[in-house]
Amino acid sequence: MPEVKEATDSYFADFMRLEREANHFPAWLGELRKKALEEFAEAGFPTTRHEAWRFTNVSRIAETRWCAPETSANGAAASLLDRHAIPGVAARIVFVDGLFAPELSALENLPEGLQVVALRRAQQQPSGDLPGRWIESHLARHAAIGENAFVALNTAFFQDGALIHLAPGTDLKNPVHVLYLRASNGAHTATHPRTLVVTGHQSRGGIIESYVGQTDEACFTNAVTEIAVGEDSSVEHLKLQDEAENAFHVGTVQAVQARSSRFLSHSVSWGAALARHDINAVLAGEGAECTLNGLFQVTGQQHVDHHTCLDHAQPHCSSREYYRGVLDGRSTGVFNGAILVRKDAQKTDAIQSNKNLLLSEDAVINTKPELQILADDVRCTHGATVGQLDSEALFYLRARGIGLEAARHLLIRAFANEVIGRISFAPARQRLAERLLGRLSKGWTSEDSL
Predict the structure, then answer these.
(1) Calpha distance 389→412 (Å, rounded)
(2) What is the C-alpha to C-alpha distance for residues 301 and 289, in angstroms, rounded to an integer?
(3) SS3 call for 243
(4) Which of 250, 237, 239, 132 has the alpha carbon at shortest distance from 191?
(5) What is the pLDDT along the chain (450 residues), one digit of tens a residue?
(6) Alpha-carbon distance 81 to 93, whole Å?
(7) What is the pTM of this model?
(8) Per the count of CB atoms within 10 A, which of 95, 301, 347, 391 is most buried?
(9) Distance (Å) of CA 249 to CA 269, 278, 404
């Protein structure tokens, strides 16, 4: 299609302009960016002919000429922050339209062993400093640019993001909150946020990653998060996608786990016209444990796609996966859960479950488990269900004087709260429960505040 080629070619001109302006990038990163652009140019945007994108059409992203936001609307962002900040966190780092906003962040008096730095600032520090070494050791080492065109695009064009590091032995009581706010009303703007989390031996901590926005024009967020979970360490990660109803969101979370580590992932997707989430974990050390936990709730003509992949690369590892979807209107959902058990990954224990509620006759869900088992001493199970609200439960509630809409809301909340209830940080859990209630009572508009 001529429109796609023209839009793709425009990235080369944008890249040359970025190179001229981005003199703060170290040489190795400049070479990496060039390689990523070449990978993107060779692969192009995926189409529905690609199996992994069979049910998700990104032609509206591919055909649009996106540009970087010209100015950061920090005034509007401050209002967004007031509504979406979560109390009690150990630190808060805020980005407005893709760039670090120090005046909205809270990075003073960090707990011992915790470092939170904007990637752009870390790259400008002297060669050999610790943040720079962490970036060079881990950035683009886990989320491969040759396997996902959107990851390659992000690697070529990201300008800023968050670096979070936990020193060995750190026990972080409260999580770090990373907020990516979209506040600019410029037409067809795109940002490419990058988040890098590195944890040391026997450390423990949590990260909340929020993508929120309220813009009048269509916008595109292309995010990549890499998480290196150190040996015998534990990471809990919550990604909340709650962008405006005219937004497009594509995001990749890639975790790599060392020996005896634990990784708990929560993905909650409410906003955007089209949202695609790739969430992958490589259990690269013996005895690693991983749980992927997700909830999506959409209506109107929203489309949300979750693709997960659990790569059991070593023996004696276990994984659990619980995804739930609630769909109304003419919305569509996709869940594709892949489990790979490699030849030497004996004693693997993997369980996957996907349950979906269709609240209208026009809502559609496509769910597909993928199991590739190359070892012979394993326990792997999966299950998927698609249904409507339990008529007997509705009758039971109505018989006790509860109105129809209130009864429906109670059942939906109970269904969704099985996912939300697994979030350990109480203030985040409470905010999400309130947000869920607000969406049910106000028609599920993506711009309602928490």
Answers:
(1) 8
(2) 37
(3) coil
(4) 250
(5) 444 455 566 787 788 777 766 666 788 888 999 999 999 999 999 999 999 999 999 999 999 999 888 766 667 788 888 889 999 999 999 999 999 999 999 999 999 999 999 998 887 665 556 677 788 888 888 998 988 999 999 999 999 999 999 999 999 999 999 999 998 777 889 999 999 999 999 999 999 999 998 877 899 999 999 999 999 999 999 999 999 989 999 999 999 999 999 999 999 999 999 999 999 999 999 999 999 999 999 999 999 999 999 999 999 999 999 999 999 999 999 999 999 999 999 999 999 999 999 999 999 999 999 999 999 999 999 999 999 888 888 777 888 888 888 888 888 988 999 999 999 999 999 999 988 888 887 654 433 333
(6) 11
(7) 0.93
(8) 95
(9) 10, 11, 34
Q: What is the DSSP string of 18-74?
A: HHHH-TTS-HHHHHHHHHHHHHHHHH-S--TTSGGGTT---HHHHTS--B--SS--H
Look-up of token digits 């609240």? 359
* DSSP at 102: G
431 SS3 class: helix
Does residue 30 contact residue 19 with C-beta atoms inside 8 Å?
yes
| Residue 195 neighbours by CB distance under 10 Å | 25
Q: How many angstroms separate the CA atoms of 241 and 84, rounded?
A: 12
Q: Do residues 255 and 283 touch, judged by C-beta distance below 8 A?
A: no
Domain boundaries, the chain: 66-389, 390-450
**C-alpha angle with apex 85: 83 to 86, nearest 5 degrees?**
125
Q: Per DSSP, which regions of 245-392 are E strands? A: 247-257, 262-269, 274-283, 289-298, 303-312, 318-327, 332-341, 348-358, 364-373, 378-387
- Give bridge partners of residue 349 from the DSSP assignment: 318, 379
Contacts of 407 (CB under 8 A, 6+ apart): 394, 397, 398
CA distance 244 to 185: 11
- How many other C-beta atoms are found inside a 10 Å radius of the C-beta of residue 368? 15
The token pair that represents 121 in the structure block: 């600032």
Give Cβ neighbours of residue 289 (< 8 Å, ≥ 6 apart): 261, 262, 263, 317, 318, 319
Token digits for 178? 């990373």
What's the rounded Cα separation, in Å, for the pair 47 and 214? 28
| H/E run at residue 108 | none
